[in-house]
Every structure is written in C-alpha cells, then in structure tokens.
Specification:
This protein is an alpha+beta fold. Helices cover 58% and strands 15% of the residues.
C-alpha cells in the first residue's frame, strides 16, 4: 500500500461520524444514503461530505440504483488496510 493512499484512508477514518457511517455501511450490503440518517443524525450536506471523504479514500463504493445511491464497503481497500496494520505487529 502506498503512503498517499494510506494517508487518505487514515484522514478519512479520523472523524467519529465517518467511523459510525463506515460501521453502518458494513452491516448491510448496498446500504442507501437515506438509511444512514437514522444512525448518524447529521445534516444532509454534512452526510454528503463525509461519504465523499470515505469514497475518495477508497473505503466505500457507490453505485446509482434508480434515483438512489447504494453504498458498500470496498473489500479490497479494507484488506489492504488490514494487511498494512498487521505488518506493524512485532513478530
């Protein structure tokens, strides 16, 4: 994992709202944006900014389904992050 990508992920994970959003997205496949307001009561513009940060870091993926955006964890990026953190363990 390159340093730039890791830094972007770390910055994205540094916000408590984003951590909550990531946790809720991980619970369900293709979670909708509107579903997340129930768990993270923030304004719509704040929600958009937090989701944008998670998407830009690669931690979540989105796709349009009709008029709705569906969100899911990017398993590949999550595995990269997990592997990096595991590499920090002293053998």
């Amino acid at each position: 994992m390159d340093t730039k990508s890791l830094t972007k992920m770390a910055k994205s994970l540094s916000d408590p709202h984003r951590l909550l959003l990531l946790k809720e997205i991980a619970k369900g496949t293709n979670r909708g944006c509107a579903d997340l307001f129930e768990f993270v009561p923030i304004s719509q513009p704040s929600m958009s900014q937090h989701l944008k940060s998670l998407a830009e870091s690669g931690l979540i993926e989105s796709h349009k389904e009709g008029r709705n955006m569906r969100l899911a964890i990017n398993d590949e990026k999550l595995e990269e992050l997990t592997s990096f953190l595991q590499s920090l363990k002293i053998a």
